[in-house]
Specification:
The chain has helices at 2-6, 41-44, 62-73, 93-98, 154-158, 166-187, 205-210, 218-225, 228-233, 254-263, 281-288, 303-308, 310-321, and strands at residues 9-16, 22-30, 35-39, 78-82, 102-104, 123-125, 137-141, 212-216, 237-245, 269-277, 292-295. It is of the alpha/beta class. The protein has a six-stranded mixed β-sheet, with helices on both faces. The protein has a three-stranded parallel β-sheet with strand order 9-10-11, with helices on both faces. Strand 1 and strand 2 (22-30) form a beta hairpin.
Length: 332
Protein backbone atom coordinates (compact mmCIF):
# COMPACT_ATOMS: atom_id res chain seq x y z
CA UNK A 1 0.00 0.00 0.00
CA UNK A 2 2.73 2.45 0.96
CA UNK A 3 4.84 1.50 -2.06
CA UNK A 4 1.87 2.16 -4.35
CA UNK A 5 1.35 5.63 -2.90
CA UNK A 6 4.88 6.70 -1.96
CA UNK A 7 7.24 4.72 -4.17
CA UNK A 8 10.53 3.74 -2.57
CA UNK A 9 12.89 0.81 -3.12
CA UNK A 10 12.45 -2.84 -2.19
CA UNK A 11 15.36 -4.26 -0.20
CA UNK A 12 15.97 -8.01 -0.21
CA UNK A 13 17.44 -9.73 2.83
CA UNK A 14 18.13 -13.35 3.73
CA UNK A 15 16.66 -14.06 7.16
CA UNK A 16 15.29 -16.85 9.33
CA UNK A 17 11.66 -17.85 8.99
CA UNK A 18 9.64 -18.69 12.16
CA UNK A 19 11.26 -22.15 12.32
CA UNK A 20 14.82 -20.88 11.72
CA UNK A 21 14.95 -21.79 8.04
CA UNK A 22 16.65 -19.43 5.61
CA UNK A 23 14.27 -17.42 3.40
CA UNK A 24 14.22 -14.28 1.26
CA UNK A 25 12.25 -11.36 2.66
CA UNK A 26 11.76 -7.77 1.52
CA UNK A 27 11.25 -4.45 3.20
CA UNK A 28 10.53 -1.02 1.74
CA UNK A 29 13.11 1.78 1.93
CA UNK A 30 11.65 5.30 1.78
CA UNK A 31 13.28 8.75 1.80
CA UNK A 32 16.55 7.49 0.30
CA UNK A 33 16.75 4.79 2.95
CA UNK A 34 16.13 7.04 5.95
CA UNK A 35 12.88 5.19 6.66
CA UNK A 36 12.37 1.42 6.45
CA UNK A 37 8.90 -0.14 6.37
CA UNK A 38 9.10 -3.70 7.63
CA UNK A 39 6.21 -6.14 7.62
CA UNK A 40 6.63 -8.69 10.37
CA UNK A 41 4.69 -11.30 8.40
CA UNK A 42 7.37 -11.23 5.68
CA UNK A 43 9.80 -13.02 8.00
CA UNK A 44 7.75 -14.30 10.93
CA UNK A 45 4.31 -14.77 9.40
CA UNK A 46 1.84 -17.57 9.94
CA UNK A 47 1.42 -17.97 6.18
CA UNK A 48 5.07 -19.01 5.89
CA UNK A 49 4.19 -22.27 7.64
CA UNK A 50 1.98 -25.17 6.67
CA UNK A 51 -0.82 -25.96 9.08
CA UNK A 52 1.14 -28.95 10.35
CA UNK A 53 4.14 -26.72 11.13
CA UNK A 54 2.25 -24.16 13.18
CA UNK A 55 3.49 -24.45 16.74
CA UNK A 56 4.20 -21.31 18.80
CA UNK A 57 6.31 -23.38 21.20
CA UNK A 58 8.90 -23.68 18.40
CA UNK A 59 8.54 -20.43 16.46
CA UNK A 60 10.61 -17.27 16.81
CA UNK A 61 10.61 -13.63 15.71
CA UNK A 62 14.32 -13.81 14.90
CA UNK A 63 13.79 -13.06 11.20
CA UNK A 64 11.91 -9.85 11.95
CA UNK A 65 14.77 -8.73 14.16
CA UNK A 66 17.23 -9.52 11.39
CA UNK A 67 15.29 -7.24 9.04
CA UNK A 68 15.34 -4.45 11.62
CA UNK A 69 19.07 -4.94 12.18
CA UNK A 70 19.75 -4.83 8.45
CA UNK A 71 17.78 -1.60 8.03
CA UNK A 72 19.61 0.07 10.92
CA UNK A 73 22.98 -1.02 9.56
CA UNK A 74 21.99 0.45 6.18
CA UNK A 75 21.41 3.81 7.83
CA UNK A 76 17.67 3.90 8.55
CA UNK A 77 16.91 6.35 11.34
CA UNK A 78 13.22 5.48 11.41
CA UNK A 79 11.55 2.10 11.15
CA UNK A 80 7.85 1.47 10.63
CA UNK A 81 7.09 -2.07 11.76
CA UNK A 82 3.72 -3.66 11.02
CA UNK A 83 3.08 -6.61 13.31
CA UNK A 84 0.02 -8.41 11.97
CA UNK A 85 -0.20 -12.06 10.94
CA UNK A 86 2.60 -13.49 13.06
CA UNK A 87 3.24 -17.17 13.76
CA UNK A 88 4.88 -16.42 17.09
CA UNK A 89 4.30 -16.09 20.82
CA UNK A 90 7.87 -15.46 21.98
CA UNK A 91 7.47 -12.03 23.64
CA UNK A 92 9.79 -10.59 21.02
CA UNK A 93 12.79 -12.49 22.38
CA UNK A 94 13.79 -13.76 18.94
CA UNK A 95 13.64 -10.21 17.59
CA UNK A 96 15.75 -9.08 20.53
CA UNK A 97 18.27 -11.84 19.88
CA UNK A 98 18.87 -10.43 16.39
CA UNK A 99 19.66 -7.05 17.97
CA UNK A 100 22.24 -8.58 20.30
CA UNK A 101 20.27 -9.56 23.40
CA UNK A 102 21.19 -12.88 24.99
CA UNK A 103 19.08 -15.01 27.30
CA UNK A 104 20.32 -17.40 29.98
CA UNK A 105 18.87 -19.98 32.36
CA UNK A 106 19.52 -20.23 36.09
CA UNK A 107 22.89 -21.93 35.48
CA UNK A 108 24.05 -19.17 33.14
CA UNK A 109 23.75 -21.25 29.99
CA UNK A 110 22.36 -19.53 26.92
CA UNK A 111 18.75 -20.30 26.00
CA UNK A 112 17.48 -20.15 22.42
CA UNK A 113 14.50 -17.80 22.53
CA UNK A 114 11.36 -19.57 21.32
CA UNK A 115 7.92 -19.64 22.82
CA UNK A 116 8.46 -22.99 24.50
CA UNK A 117 11.76 -21.93 26.07
CA UNK A 118 10.48 -18.74 27.71
CA UNK A 119 9.84 -20.38 31.13
CA UNK A 120 13.52 -21.43 31.28
CA UNK A 121 14.89 -17.90 30.90
CA UNK A 122 16.13 -16.29 34.11
CA UNK A 123 18.58 -13.71 32.79
CA UNK A 124 18.64 -10.96 30.13
CA UNK A 125 22.02 -9.80 28.83
CA UNK A 126 21.93 -6.63 26.72
CA UNK A 127 25.54 -5.53 27.05
CA UNK A 128 26.33 -6.32 23.42
CA UNK A 129 23.29 -5.01 21.58
CA UNK A 130 23.57 -3.34 18.18
CA UNK A 131 25.16 0.11 18.53
CA UNK A 132 22.79 3.05 18.06
CA UNK A 133 19.65 0.92 17.84
CA UNK A 134 18.20 2.73 20.85
CA UNK A 135 18.41 6.00 18.92
CA UNK A 136 16.41 4.56 16.02
CA UNK A 137 12.81 5.73 16.01
CA UNK A 138 10.58 2.67 15.75
CA UNK A 139 6.89 3.11 15.00
CA UNK A 140 4.95 -0.10 15.54
CA UNK A 141 1.72 -0.25 13.56
CA UNK A 142 -0.85 -2.33 15.38
CA UNK A 143 -4.64 -2.35 15.56
CA UNK A 144 -4.80 -4.76 18.53
CA UNK A 145 -5.18 -3.36 22.05
CA UNK A 146 -4.64 -6.58 24.01
CA UNK A 147 -2.04 -6.52 26.76
CA UNK A 148 0.60 -9.25 27.04
CA UNK A 149 -0.85 -11.34 29.88
CA UNK A 150 -4.22 -12.20 31.37
CA UNK A 151 -7.50 -13.52 30.03
CA UNK A 152 -7.35 -11.16 27.05
CA UNK A 153 -3.63 -11.52 26.55
CA UNK A 154 -1.49 -12.72 23.68
CA UNK A 155 -1.85 -16.45 24.36
CA UNK A 156 -5.50 -16.89 25.31
CA UNK A 157 -6.87 -14.81 22.44
CA UNK A 158 -4.43 -15.55 19.61
CA UNK A 159 -2.53 -18.71 20.61
CA UNK A 160 -5.01 -21.23 19.20
CA UNK A 161 -5.03 -19.69 15.71
CA UNK A 162 -1.23 -20.03 15.67
CA UNK A 163 -1.43 -23.74 16.45
CA UNK A 164 -1.20 -23.76 20.25
CA UNK A 165 -2.75 -26.77 22.01
CA UNK A 166 -4.28 -26.39 25.51
CA UNK A 167 -1.03 -27.75 26.97
CA UNK A 168 1.05 -25.34 24.88
CA UNK A 169 -1.11 -22.43 26.00
CA UNK A 170 -0.24 -23.15 29.64
CA UNK A 171 3.49 -23.23 28.82
CA UNK A 172 3.25 -20.01 26.83
CA UNK A 173 1.30 -18.28 29.60
CA UNK A 174 4.02 -19.16 32.10
CA UNK A 175 6.66 -18.02 29.64
CA UNK A 176 5.12 -14.63 28.91
CA UNK A 177 4.55 -13.94 32.60
CA UNK A 178 8.17 -14.89 33.29
CA UNK A 179 9.59 -12.63 30.56
CA UNK A 180 7.34 -9.73 31.54
CA UNK A 181 8.55 -10.03 35.13
CA UNK A 182 12.22 -10.17 34.10
CA UNK A 183 11.85 -7.18 31.79
CA UNK A 184 10.10 -5.18 34.51
CA UNK A 185 12.84 -5.92 37.04
CA UNK A 186 15.57 -5.11 34.52
CA UNK A 187 14.12 -2.04 32.79
CA UNK A 188 11.11 -0.87 34.80
CA UNK A 189 8.82 -1.35 31.80
CA UNK A 190 5.44 -2.84 32.75
CA UNK A 191 4.14 -4.70 29.70
CA UNK A 192 0.62 -5.02 31.04
CA UNK A 193 0.27 -1.29 31.56
CA UNK A 194 0.53 -0.67 27.80
CA UNK A 195 -2.38 -1.76 25.56
CA UNK A 196 -1.07 -3.43 22.42
CA UNK A 197 1.86 -5.27 23.98
CA UNK A 198 -0.05 -8.52 23.45
CA UNK A 199 -0.08 -8.08 19.67
CA UNK A 200 1.86 -10.63 17.63
CA UNK A 201 2.72 -12.68 20.69
CA UNK A 202 4.39 -9.76 22.44
CA UNK A 203 6.66 -8.87 19.52
CA UNK A 204 6.95 -5.21 20.59
CA UNK A 205 8.06 -5.88 24.17
CA UNK A 206 11.83 -5.39 23.88
CA UNK A 207 11.54 -2.59 21.34
CA UNK A 208 9.39 -0.64 23.79
CA UNK A 209 11.15 -1.62 27.03
CA UNK A 210 14.70 -0.98 25.86
CA UNK A 211 14.44 1.08 22.69
CA UNK A 212 12.83 4.15 21.18
CA UNK A 213 9.61 2.47 20.08
CA UNK A 214 5.94 3.36 20.33
CA UNK A 215 2.71 1.68 19.32
CA UNK A 216 0.32 3.45 16.98
CA UNK A 217 -2.96 2.43 15.40
CA UNK A 218 -2.08 0.88 12.07
CA UNK A 219 -5.07 2.28 10.22
CA UNK A 220 -4.38 5.83 11.36
CA UNK A 221 -0.74 5.59 10.32
CA UNK A 222 -1.44 4.29 6.81
CA UNK A 223 -4.37 6.67 6.32
CA UNK A 224 -2.14 9.60 7.21
CA UNK A 225 0.80 8.51 5.05
CA UNK A 226 -1.46 7.93 2.03
CA UNK A 227 -3.65 11.05 2.47
CA UNK A 228 -6.83 8.97 2.70
CA UNK A 229 -8.96 11.84 3.99
CA UNK A 230 -8.02 13.98 0.99
CA UNK A 231 -8.89 11.14 -1.38
CA UNK A 232 -12.30 10.73 0.25
CA UNK A 233 -12.89 14.49 0.05
CA UNK A 234 -12.30 14.36 -3.70
CA UNK A 235 -14.59 11.43 -4.54
CA UNK A 236 -18.28 10.63 -4.33
CA UNK A 237 -18.22 6.88 -3.67
CA UNK A 238 -16.04 5.14 -1.09
CA UNK A 239 -15.64 1.35 -1.28
CA UNK A 240 -14.27 -0.55 1.71
CA UNK A 241 -14.08 -4.19 2.59
CA UNK A 242 -12.29 -7.17 4.08
CA UNK A 243 -12.37 -10.94 3.92
CA UNK A 244 -15.18 -11.23 6.42
CA UNK A 245 -17.40 -8.54 7.87
CA UNK A 246 -18.71 -9.74 11.24
CA UNK A 247 -18.91 -8.86 14.92
CA UNK A 248 -15.13 -8.31 15.08
CA UNK A 249 -15.21 -5.63 12.38
CA UNK A 250 -15.89 -2.89 14.91
CA UNK A 251 -12.69 -3.60 16.88
CA UNK A 252 -10.24 -1.41 15.02
CA UNK A 253 -10.69 -3.09 11.65
CA UNK A 254 -10.32 -1.17 8.39
CA UNK A 255 -14.01 -1.24 7.48
CA UNK A 256 -15.09 0.40 10.73
CA UNK A 257 -12.31 2.98 10.51
CA UNK A 258 -13.16 3.94 6.92
CA UNK A 259 -16.84 4.12 7.85
CA UNK A 260 -16.03 6.57 10.64
CA UNK A 261 -14.19 8.88 8.24
CA UNK A 262 -17.03 8.75 5.71
CA UNK A 263 -19.58 9.40 8.45
CA UNK A 264 -17.73 12.60 9.31
CA UNK A 265 -17.36 13.70 5.67
CA UNK A 266 -20.56 15.11 4.20
CA UNK A 267 -22.08 13.86 0.98
CA UNK A 268 -20.17 10.60 0.53
CA UNK A 269 -21.63 7.21 -0.32
CA UNK A 270 -20.15 4.14 1.38
CA UNK A 271 -20.20 0.71 -0.29
CA UNK A 272 -19.13 -2.43 1.57
CA UNK A 273 -17.58 -5.49 -0.07
CA UNK A 274 -16.60 -8.72 1.68
CA UNK A 275 -15.78 -12.29 0.91
CA UNK A 276 -18.38 -13.24 3.50
CA UNK A 277 -20.86 -11.35 5.67
CA UNK A 278 -21.88 -12.88 8.98
CA UNK A 279 -24.95 -11.45 10.68
CA UNK A 280 -27.78 -9.29 9.41
CA UNK A 281 -26.83 -7.42 6.24
CA UNK A 282 -29.31 -4.67 7.04
CA UNK A 283 -27.99 -4.28 10.59
CA UNK A 284 -24.40 -4.04 9.34
CA UNK A 285 -25.35 -1.48 6.68
CA UNK A 286 -27.10 0.60 9.34
CA UNK A 287 -24.24 0.25 11.82
CA UNK A 288 -21.60 1.53 9.40
CA UNK A 289 -23.73 3.83 7.28
CA UNK A 290 -23.34 1.71 4.14
CA UNK A 291 -25.56 2.40 1.19
CA UNK A 292 -25.00 -1.14 -0.12
CA UNK A 293 -23.18 -4.26 1.04
CA UNK A 294 -21.93 -7.06 -1.22
CA UNK A 295 -20.67 -10.51 -0.24
CA UNK A 296 -18.89 -12.72 -2.76
CA UNK A 297 -19.92 -15.85 -0.85
CA UNK A 298 -23.56 -14.88 -1.34
CA UNK A 299 -23.48 -16.03 -4.94
CA UNK A 300 -20.30 -18.11 -5.29
CA UNK A 301 -20.79 -21.87 -5.43
CA UNK A 302 -18.66 -22.47 -2.33
CA UNK A 303 -15.72 -21.04 -0.38
CA UNK A 304 -13.15 -22.37 -2.84
CA UNK A 305 -15.02 -20.80 -5.74
CA UNK A 306 -15.25 -17.43 -3.97
CA UNK A 307 -11.51 -17.44 -3.27
CA UNK A 308 -10.34 -18.84 -6.58
CA UNK A 309 -12.51 -16.52 -8.67
CA UNK A 310 -12.50 -13.48 -6.38
CA UNK A 311 -11.18 -11.15 -9.10
CA UNK A 312 -13.99 -12.03 -11.50
CA UNK A 313 -16.64 -11.63 -8.83
CA UNK A 314 -15.20 -8.27 -7.75
CA UNK A 315 -15.38 -7.03 -11.34
CA UNK A 316 -19.06 -7.94 -11.37
CA UNK A 317 -19.56 -6.14 -8.07
CA UNK A 318 -17.82 -3.09 -9.52
CA UNK A 319 -20.42 -2.96 -12.28
CA UNK A 320 -23.22 -3.34 -9.75
CA UNK A 321 -21.94 -0.37 -7.76
CA UNK A 322 -22.94 1.84 -10.70
CA UNK A 323 -26.40 0.29 -11.03
CA UNK A 324 -29.53 0.99 -8.98
CA UNK A 325 -29.67 -0.90 -5.69
CA UNK A 326 -31.37 -4.29 -5.80
CA UNK A 327 -32.96 -6.18 -2.90
CA UNK A 328 -30.14 -8.74 -2.72
CA UNK A 329 -27.24 -6.78 -4.22
CA UNK A 330 -26.37 -9.96 -6.09
CA UNK A 331 -24.39 -9.29 -9.29
CA UNK A 332 -26.14 -10.51 -12.39
Amino acid sequence: CLHYHLGGEWVKVIVNDPLHRSIEAFYLALDQGKTAVIEMAAASGLELLSKAERDPLKTSTLGTGEMIRHAIQQGAGRIILTIGGSATVDAGTGLAEALGFRFTDHTGNEVQPTGGNLPQISGIDHKHVLPNWKQTEIIIACDVQNILNGTHGAVIIYGPQKGATPEAIETLKQGLENIASLVYKDSGFDADAHPGTGAAGGAALFLMAYGNARLVKGFDLIASMTNLQEAINNHEIVITGEGRIDSQTGYGKVVASVAEIVRNTNGKRLIGVAGRVEGSTEDIKKQYGMERLFAIRQYAKNDNDSIRNAAAYLKLIGRQVLLPSTPTDTPS
